[in-house]
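Field reference: sequence -> structure
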Amino acid sequence: MTDIIPAPLVPRVSVHGGGTFPVRRIFCVGRNFADHAREMGASAPASKAERGTPVFFHKPADAIVTGNADVPYPPGTQDLHHEVELVAALGTDAPPGELSPDVAPSLVIAYGVGLDLTRRDLQAAAKAKGLPWDTGKGFDHSAPISELVPAASVSTLEERTLTLRVNGETRQHGALHDLIWDVPEILVELSKLYALKAGDLVFMGTPAGVAALVPGDTFEASLDGVVTLQGRISG
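Structure field:
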């Protein structure tokens, strides 16, 4: 059967050392650092036993911005916020059924750093009415991402930190050991809801310090010692 329109290009992320990663889906985790949960007015668990279940949402695969390209300021908002995040890239399909915690780490082929850009005013309005966050989270160019670094070359992930600088000043800084749900735990929880596949990206949540970006701002996000993302908000 012949397509009646040209097939869209598959979004791809460059991989350090060569090759590209074709993106299938983007899963995002909300409120995965206690300090950020509190700054957003939500309660944070005091222990793992009190965590409940993670908060998940999605971005479209073609929301990625790669190559340190400019990020256009989105329409419909007066309050665009940055959220720096660890990104896990899956290189293997999860086996059928609920994922085992022992198997979960083997699904990750690479890591990167990204921004979960958020139209905060639209998200807040939706929250106030008990409505979905889609317009606040899943918009065009809302997922700038660095190149991906093979997981085999990223040791002691839990000892690393995330940092975001805007116009040269530090806005966010957080240690990955402070994640409420770590990468394997998130993959296990996602597997209860979705069939995880090679090509999926998981944005793992942001530490405290989220704030506004305006046209002309430059940003530098880093997963320390691993990879850096740079960019600029264009008008």
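Note: The first helix runs from residue 34 to 39.
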